[in-house]
Every structure is written in structure tokens, then in C-alpha cells.
Design brief:
InterPro entries: Acyl_CoA_acyltransferase (IPR016181), GNAT_dom (IPR000182). The protein has 194 residues and is α+β, with helices and mostly antiparallel strands. It has helices spanning 3-13, 38-45, 48-51, 63-75, 120-135, 150-159, and strands spanning 23-24, 29-32, 81-86, 92-101, 104-111, 140-146, 162-171, 176-186. Strand 1 (23-24) and strand 2 form a beta hairpin.
Length: 194
């Protein structure tokens, strides 16, 4: 059996968390994305202050980029969860994703810049990760932040993520390699933010 078939079989054999659920928190609603989310996603990620902190987001970011991404999400062929983070009136303000890459679960998130500094990222990431780990208690979640993003590292540390190392990764929006602090979380380490 060749290596690609073996790797695919190993990934397929892993447990699946099921469909992306709806989650209500004190201030937010996390729900699966819709195609109508394209405009607010493009508006948020079109802000270089947001895009520069994400590895796989191009700059400039256009509504067609959002539609292309949303169409891949709508195909629903992967076990990934990608939540639209919305305010009480269903205004799209960000995203939390938990995706299977190379046989490991990875957490990523972003918020529209106008919602930074209010504890909403911690609230949203905790809600998504808590629900995921209830379905997949044996999973280990990997994440990380660019070294020049201490606010995001603080979010992860509040939730119990532990630093495991540092590497250099390519940041598409910046068009350069950037220092990346790597983190991980298991179910027993998860903490509810204050």
C-alpha cells in the first residue's frame, strides 16, 4: 500500500465530531456559516490589521475570496467545524475553526477589529473548543499565534493552551516568514475564561 493511501486511511479511521452545531453563549451565537456571510467576512479580513495575524489569508482580501472559502465549507466533505461568530442580532463578527490537518486537530480564530479587547474571542473559542472536546474527549488541539500577537496568545493561555515551541511559518498577507508560537490543548487542560 503506498504512503498516500495509508495516510488517508489513518485520517478516515479517526473519529468524526459530527456536524458543526449551533452554540449560544452569554453574548454570542456560534453557528455554521452561510453564503450570506461573504460580505462581512470580506469586510473583516479586508482590514490588514486582522489579515496580517492569519497565516492563510491573502491581502487584499475580496468578497470573492470569502465566497470561494464559503463554498468549500458548504461542500461539507470534511469533518471540520467552522463557526460564524455572531453578535446577539446575528451580525457576523468573526470565525472559530477546528479543522483536521495532517491527522491533527487545529484551532484558528479571528474577530473583526472593532470587537477586539472585549473578551469575545475568549468566549467564542472556549465555547467551540468545549463543545468539540465533549464530542471528542481524546482529541488534542493544536494552535498558535504569531509572536507579535500577544493578545491572541493571552486568549489561548487563559483557556489552558500550553506553549510547545516556536517555528517560522509563511504569512500570506505579509508575504514573508513570521515567528509562530505553537500551542496545544487537551480536554483536561481546558479552563473557562473568567
Amino acid at each position: 500500500m503506498n504512503a498516500l493511501v495509508t495516510e488517508r486511511a489513518r485520517i478516515v479511521a479517526k473519529p468524526d465530531p459530527g456536524p458543526c452545531p449551533d452554540i449560544e453563549t452569554k453574548r454570542l451565537r456560534l453557528r455554521p456559516h452561510r453564503l450570506s456571510d461573504a460580505a462581512p467576512i470580506a469586510e473583516s479580513l479586508g482590514d490588514f490589521r486582522v489579515a496580517r495575524m492569519l497565516a492563510r489569508v491573502p491581502a487584499p482580501y475580496h468578497q470573492q475570496d470569502a465566497l470561494d472559502w464559503l463554498n468549500r465549507q458548504a461542500a461539507n466533505v470534511l469533518p471540520d467545524w467552522t463557526f460564524a461568530v455572531t453578535s446577539g442580532d446575528d451580525v457576523h463578527i468573526g470565525c472559530v475553526g477546528i479543522e483536521l490537518r495532517h491527522g491533527e486537530w487545529h484551532v484558528g480564530y479571528w474577530l473583526n477589529r472593532f470587537y477586539w479587547g472585549k473578551g469575545l474571542a475568549s468566549e467564542a473559542v472556549y465555547a467551540a473548543v468545549d463543545r468539540f472536546l465533549r464530542r471528542m474527549p481524546e482529541a488534542v488541539l493544536h494552535s498558535g499565534v504569531f509572536a507579535d500577537n500577544p493578545a491572541s496568545l493571552k486568549v489561548q493561555e487563559k483557556l489552558g493552551f500550553k506553549i510547545t515551541g516556536c517555528s517560522q511559518i509563511y504569512a500570506l498577507a505579509r508575504n514573508t516568514m513570521v515567528a509562530h508560537i505553537e500551542t496545544r490543548l487537551s480536554a483536561e487542560d481546558l479552563r473557562r475564561p473568567a
